[in-house]
Amino acid sequence: MAAHKVVHATLRGGPSVVKEIVMGATLGLFAGGLWKMHHWNEQRKTKAFYDLLEKGEISVVAAAVE
Questions:
Q1: How distant is the alpha carbon of residue 27 from its chain centre?
Q2: How far apart are CA 28 and CA 4, in angstroms?
Q3: pLDDT(2) > 90
Q4: CA dist 35 to 10, 17, 28, 66, Å?
Q5: Could you give the CA distance from residue 25 to residue 15 in angstroms, rounded to a whole number?
Q6: Residues 47, 52, 58, 60, Cα dihedral to 10°
Q7: What's the pLDDT at 65?
Q8: Cα gap 20→24, rounded to integer Å
Q9: pLDDT above 70: percentage of residues in the chain
């Protein structure tokens, strides 16, 4: 019986814990920034809606159609 050679993956330099933490923190901050920008945009639209409602320029009651 011929023995087969098994090729194993070798880690060159090994995993860097600090690099993983920095990459994770960077991705987390980026995603958090996008979420916060989305939140601010929704908040701006809501404020604009209530400002128009208070001025009487818009109404939430549908007009009766006859």
A1: 10
A2: 45
A3: no
A4: 39, 27, 10, 45
A5: 17
A6: 30
A7: 75
A8: 6
A9: 82
Identify whether the C-beta of residue 20 lies closer than 8 Å to the C-beta of residue 26: no
Ordered DSSP codes for 2-59: PPPPPP----SS---HHHHHHHHHHHHHHHHHHHHHHHHHHHHHHHHHHHHHHHTS--
User: Distance between CA 26 and CA 32 in Å, rounded?
Assistant: 10
- DSSP letters spanning 19-33: HHHHHHHHHHHHHHH
What are 10's two structure tokens?
Answer: 């070798």
User: What residue has token string 């023995």?
Assistant: 3
DSSP letter for 65, please.
-
Token pair listed for 21: 């933490």
